[in-house]
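We emphasize that the prediction below concerns an isolated chain of 296 residues; any contacts that depend on oligomerization or on bound cofactors are therefore not represented. The input was used exactly as deposited, without trimming of termini.
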Amino acid sequence: MKTERKRRFGDRKDARWVKDAPGLQTIMANILVNRTDCEVYLNDKLDATALTEYLNQKNASHPEYKTTVFHCMITAMSRMVKERPKLNYFIQGRRMYERNVISLSFVCKRRFKDDAEEALMVLEPSDEDTLDSISRKIVGDVNETRKSEHSTGGIDSVIDTLARLPRPILIPLMRLIRILDFWGKNPHILTDGDPDYTTILASNLGSIQCPAVYHHLNNYGTNSIMVTIGTLHKEEMLMPDGHKEIRDVLDIGATLDERIADGFYFARSLKLIKHIFAHPELLDKPLGEDSGFTYE
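Result of the prediction step, given as a token string:
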């Protein structure tokens, strides 16, 4: 989802300078200059019962191609950022910016082995995308990545190359990269495909049977939202009418940079995710079409 607009003075190549940012957030960006000093952690449970039923029906119609809860979560988060634009903000160089694109990233394990390498993957959803198209993009990229035991290009190869440099060269080079990062001048070879430069970095811990845990943000790059997704499981929940019921539950954890928006904005954004899980048919709607959800 790329926003086409004329570049102005103060804009970065990847984002637009938010010149009318609230005074409090501008001052916070200059007092609390490190993203890791401004973390807000949120942990919640999503009722995934309706979503599970929806996936069972969808996968029954094409058993050779499985759509997963993780695919649904990526699609739901894409819509959340589309409809809640402040989630696509970031602070870098003591200024607030709005990204030109919405991007989500995650780490793919090449093999489920202790010594297997990890690959970095980035998805930039379009307005025409639905759950089906996003699911196919993810599966296609993961399958392509797992054809090789080792990195085959992109940011993975850049990281491998830098890691082989001797310390007397690597240390000053990393300092230079951090300076360029501050001013938004890092070359594309260092930013394209790097999860540290995406809207949301997601970790699918459920795929390795782990719960949703806290994960820190990084001071490097522009990523302001880190989401961990736990294992889908059965759990007793208190229903709106007061009775208890065994439901399918998905634990999630989110670490956010509090400088990009306030807690009220974050809480309302989570409500949209819960609404999508309760009404999974919205996942079949193109991201460019509004969900119609009212934030009350």
